[in-house]
Each structure stands twice: as structure tokens, then as C-alpha cells.
Give the backbone structure.
Amino acid sequence: MLHNKNYKSGLTDSESRLNNYLKSGNSLRTAATVYTLPVVFHVVTNGGVIGAADNPSDANILATLKLLNDTWSKNRISYGGADLQIQFALAQRSLTCGSTNGINRVNGSVVQWESKSKCFSQSGGQ
């Protein structure tokens, strides 16, 4: 087909018109709406201080949140795909409408874990 002069000319013309259209900014998509999804980071620790290996600092959590947002918005050249117009932000309101900073820290060494879990056996598998 590429040896057919009419086909090749039509293809070149179509590609040229498409490129001009995309460069003009007149595509059907206007200003994109970016949806913000509130998230809560749940940190279950062994009782270590904030900044310990099992209890990351707020700065580390914010860096993880930034990486998540960069990935979903294709904000770096190494991220393939498309900008999904989604961003994540630390929740500011709890489920009971109280205020929160979006980071929930629980000292797992003092929590009474239920031994008859329906999800996991004592061997740790499902």
C-alpha cells in the first residue's frame, strides 16, 4: 500500500492535518478537571519513635504521596502512560467529620489482635 502514490499522499495529508489540529489546541478536551482523592496513611508500628524504621516520619509519608501523584499524573519522563487527572491528598476530615492530618499511627505492640480471624489462619496464609 505504501507504494501506491495516492494512498501515500492521502496518508501524509491526513497526518499533517492531524498534527496541525493537535498543535492548534482546538482538541475536544478543554481545561481538564483534576479529581482529588483524600487518602489516609495507616502506620502500624512496633512502638518505635516517629522516624524509626517501623514508623516513618511525616516527611517520608509526604514524599511517598508525592511519588504517587507524580506516577498518576505522568509527571516524570520515566513514567509511561497518560495523565489520569487524579491527585491524592492527605485527608483533612475523618469518617466522623472530625479533623485529621491524614496519618493514622497505631502502636501494634499494644493492640489486642483477634486470634480467630476469618481472613488469616495462624500460619499466616489465607
